[in-house]
Amino acid sequence: KLSKRLESVANYIIEDSAIADIGSDHAYLPCYAVKTGLAKRAVAGEVVEGPFQSAKKQVQNEGLGDRIAVRKGSGLEVIEAGEVDCITIAGMGGPLIASILEDGKDKLTGKERLVLQPNISAIAIREWLLKNGWKLIAEEILEEDGKIYEILVAEKGDPEAPYHHLEKELLFGPFLMNEKSPAFMKKWEGELANWRKILVNLEKASGSEENEEKKQALQKKIHYTEEVIQQ
Ligand code: SAM
């Protein structure tokens, strides 16, 4: 059975599409998408040999070799431009997902839907989307086994449309901040407690210029977070 996290990612796959799952590891997501009829075919991309082999094995065991191509390579280099309608990248840090998109820009035609699931620092993805003309169309936050995950869905379009207070919403997510679900509250209450501790330590440390800058940046995030969770 698929994890709640990957099932939630799958919910945003366009029906009857061709998908590419980048950093697929065991290829659970493309196998599920093809088996359930959500995707008609899929590419599973993996850059590391071990996970690449487990993806191949999984696809073979499930008898899906005619509809899922397992390819070895970094990021979007495993697909041709226009080959897929939907790209999923899940279970990595936001900065890594953003760098995969940045490095693979020439493979994006603008017709794809991007379904991205960062484990941390979703802000790096929102910033990339904003800079590159992709419009955030949905967000989800969920908790599984005590961990909190975010899902960001984007399509080519006006990248500024979802934002009202850019700096704040890049951090929290415009949809998530509006919805304020229990998982959202839990995540940011945790971050807030953590940042407050770091701030206390910075205040104890020497007042170097670098420290001052860090303190100010942290104070700003603390202030924003207090505002958002207390409203
Ligand atoms: N997507 C799966 C999931 O969400 O359960 C697997 C997540 S796993 C933690 C991250 C995978 O991404 C690893 O198997 C790693 O080898 C792969 N990976 C990391 N950087 C990559 C890149 N640039 N291109 C393709 N795969 C990459």
Automatic annotation (TrEMBL):
InterPro entries, per database record: SAM-dependent_MTases_sf, TrmK
Superkingdom of origin: Bacteria
One Pfam short name: TrmK
Matches recorded under SUPFAM superfamilies: S-adenosyl-L-methionine-dependent methyltransferases
PANTHER family reported for this sequence: TRNA (ADENINE(22)-N(1))-METHYLTRANSFERASE
Name recorded for this polypeptide: tRNA (Adenine-N(1))-methyltransferase
Native organism: Cytobacillus gottheilii
